Amino acid sequence: MNNTSAGPSSKARVGASQPSESSLKRKRGMFQKDLQHMMYGFGDDSNPLPETVALVEDIVVDYVTDMVHKAQDVASKRGKLLTEDFLFLIRKDLPKLNRCTELLSMNEELKQARKAFEVDEEKFPSHQ
Q: For residue 98, what are the CA distances in angstroms to 82, 114, 128?
């Protein structure tokens, strides 16, 4: 994790986003189960402390919110937010860029497979 970018901008963001923080607290726990499973997969206890899960959730939500705002800034000239705007933001973080590219490619393959499966079903409707 790169902590150099979390300096002054995170302090400014916290002060500037007081209303959204209170709205986030109302939705806290939305990703709790998913984060618990991910944390366990990365070596944490199978039942991590609720405070730890809440902290990780806050960090993830802050990161995603920050990335979306930055992507919106990049896209504002064009007027349309695209996947490529996010890829542009992570272009210098090669492991993250490679993983995103891999996931996008797999997603496209799954779409094509589903599409082919739907066409096959239309050709051979089931006799129920």
A: 18, 24, 45
Other C-beta atoms within 10 Å of 112: how many? 10
Q: pTM for the complete prediction? A: 0.67
Structure tokens at 114: 């589903």
Alpha carbon distance 57, 49 (integer Å): 12
pLDDT in tens, 52-73: 999 999 999 999 999 999 999 9
